Amino acid sequence: MAPEKPRLIYRVAVPSPLRRLFDYLPPDGDAGNLDANQPAPGFRVVIPFGKREVTGIIVKLAEDTDQAVAKLKPISVVLDTEPVIPPELLRLYLWASDYYQHPVGDALAGILPVLLRQGAPLKARTQEYWRLSTHGLGLPETALSGAKKQQQLLQLLIAHTSLTSAAIVEQGISREIIRTLHKKGLIEAFHQAVPDCNICADPKTLLAEPALHLRAEQQQVMDSLTLNGFNSYLLQGETGSGKTEIYLQAIARVLQAGKQALVLIPEINLTPQTLGRFQRRFNCEIAVLHSGLNDRQRLDAWQGARDGRVRILIGTRSAIFTPMKEAGIIIIDEEHDSSYKQQEGFRYAARDVAVMRASREQIPVILGSATPSLESLYNCERGRYQRLILNERPEGVSKPRWQLLDIRQSRLSAGFSTPLIEAIGDTLKAGNQVLVFLNRRGYAPLMLCHDCGWMAQCPNCSARMTVHMGQNRLLCHHCENQQPLPGRCPDCHSHALTFVGQGTERGEATLRELFPTIPILRVDRDTTRSKNAMANLVARIDDGEPCLLVGTQMLAKGHHFPHVTLAALLDVDGGLFSADFRATEKMGQLITQVAGRAGRGQKPGTVLIQSHLCDHPLITQLTGEGYNAFASTLLEQRRAAGLPPCNHLALLRAEAESAPDAEHFLRVARQRAEQLTPPSPALRYLGPLPSPMERRNNRYRFQLSLFADHRAELQQLLSELCPQLEKEKSARKVRWSVDVDAQDML
Ligand code: ADP
Ligand code: ZN
Ligand code: ZN
Hints:
single chain; alpha/beta; seven-stranded parallel sheet; 32 strands; 23% strand; binds adenosine-5'-diphosphate; binds zinc ion
């Protein structure tokens, strides 16, 4: 008997919670011979999976399988004739699903545009053009003189030989006219490949406006950038110091070299202003990718970048996984922003994936921030990133003056101390604007019965309900639960209900009472829900009329408010004693960002911090010496405590309807883990412990922390542990997840 010919097996990523690939045979009728047209890695295929048919992606070809070949099923349909995901990007996807310990099929499904996931075809990379038919070519020049527009189109096509419908319409000729000439047989359509961008090659056509003349220190930064090959840079400079100008000029160089640029920004910064700035500078095609797009728009931008039509792609977190025909640079603005980490499902950190992608594709990556993350500062310290600093404040702007207001024992009216109220009044009188920062939306974070001590608690969560006066309701910010605002205490029926603490809504109400004639603009998630709300608010602020801005961190990010000369932070103490070890870092970033809002333009600014902890060393260092000194102290503390970024952390979380189930699962997980890698000074286990928010949405939550000195050791452990846990009996009663490089400890 002849030896059995090796078979071709397809390893396919299937959307499923299982951490493995699934093996399939070639489609029926295909003998599995190696030939040019066979499906390859990156192709989408429809495959039978259980009782359903699903769309998966071929990840590998193999010659053997550990399944019984007789049980394998053939691929039902091959959807593509070329890989939707180019091979090097597919390898990045696989690395990321591996590194973040997420089931590969599920990770891939989450990254692909919905339409592709549903099996929609890639659009052909050709475009329809119009040209004169033989009949049209034979016409005398004076033909159609009775029909002006028709004649105009003929002449256009004589001058340009061929044009797309869009280009014709741009010349003021309607589609109707195109149809008419087509019916008359004078013009004909043909398809042709979209040409490569020829705008970019020439600096004259690339730039729609001239680049700014760089200031000396900007020029120094520019000169330090090596834009061919992999290099990571941390560009630190406060808002307004000219980082974006550097991005634009670096991008221009990359585009001229025939490559594309990928720019990541936090969701909140993706405003029409940001896009406008890029569009004003460049003539080439720019696309955006963010959560507000519909499926078709998303696919268009994605494919435009993949095919090379789109030269600059600006997007939020998930855009990091967009294929680019020829990526030339990655830029991550506000790199410290926590929105770059996905907090559910596939828990990747876009910043870190970006650096990995840049290194694989051998291109530069620039991380920009006024307040760099400790992770990035640590990477600079270790020589992994090159640190570039813009020190100068923009023209004519002096440093803000810090003022710490100790409010211990002082009387507060709804959170505002008398000196603060006076400072606000003085600023308004001088014709300037005031920003009041309160990092909490709603009216008050707590409703309390003064007689019996009842508190409005969410029945589903270990959290209090937030009072929302505008809606006359109690809302839980952690689940969907909401209730009408009670008129009396549900326990003792007393009317003595009080509100404790302040949110933005209450801040607004208090200020309205104190300053009845001044316009007050509230900026938080509740007032900016509708589409143009934020833009309208910003436009009013830019007017420059004296006004009061009250808002959450939405106010701290991205926008310049040149007329604000007083920024007040009402409640930052929480950042100093939170259960989350990152809370101080976030507090410092926020305070610095808020301070950056005050005193732009020509007006010097004051930053006023009201606190019970004015003499806390971190607060005095931050305000006295600045963010860098503050960050160095934090980094030392993290090093001493063996916490990230000096150490690696993975969090195993479990939640269940009963607390013992969740805890038990993690106990088992710890046992299994310790069998694989016994605890040592270099690999430490902590837990299972109840999560800081122990109950959420009616489920009890626990966590097990794994700290490791060496990333590789932690990775090795997790990749052996997770498949074991999938099979664990106690896993059936819980929802569990792994969070590698967890950002949010709650
Ligand atoms: P950042 O990105 O750090 O916030 P920007 O690049 O947006 O800073 O610069 C802030 C403002 O200063 C912008 O209006 C920008 O046009 C302007 N600007 C930046 N660099 C220069 C320069 N070299 N000359 C003149 N204006 C500049
Ligand atoms: Zn009561
Ligand atoms: Zn709740």
